[in-house]
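Page 47, continued from p. 46.
Same chain as before, 229 aa.
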Amino acid sequence: MHDQRPAFVRGPLVPRLRYLILLTLAVMLGLSQTGCIQFVANMIHAVHGDNVPAEYEGLADKKVAVITITDTSQYSNDISARMLTRYVSEILKTEVKGIKLVREDEVEQWRDTQGWEAIDYVALGRGVKADKVVSIELTDLRLREGQTMYRGHAGATITVHDVASGSREFRRTLDDYTYPVTAGLFTTETTEDKFRRVYLDMLGQRIARYFHPYDFRDGVADDAKIVHQ
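Result:
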């Protein structure tokens, strides 16, 4: 079948570079129109469908340990660390082909034995017989803005450690993940525990996207999802 796409789409550029160039053009053109978000989504769909490719595909068919470290979990079992680990793990289990996840209690048992103060991620991987370790270092987690508004902020560094070689294969940093981006919830509308779950769930989805293809449209209206939580 004859390729009906424009010549600049069919060119020899590597797929990821072509995708970035077209995304930039879509944003530049779309911002001058009404309905620009839908316009951008349509442009991406024309090139790649709606799927944005995973940045790192090395978790497929591997045994993987996921662990989250927060400012306080270095010294004790922190609820935010446990929740984020679970949210990310659930998505990876569903979205990454052939992945086998190390159970959370196995990771905690290793930490109980080795100590909570400092973690050698490669040693952890060897201890639980994992192929890869996904570490999430969560810093400066805040759930409030002022006394009356829930709006979450945190920094996160996501790293994949290869256990066999002892090397760091992948790393990304979210300097300040904010949710909701453009709004917030008044403290009279929900509780801190409920908002913590919402915020960490959204952060978990954002982190997991590094490791599986996802629909571009899933991230367009994230703020609107908070209404339905």
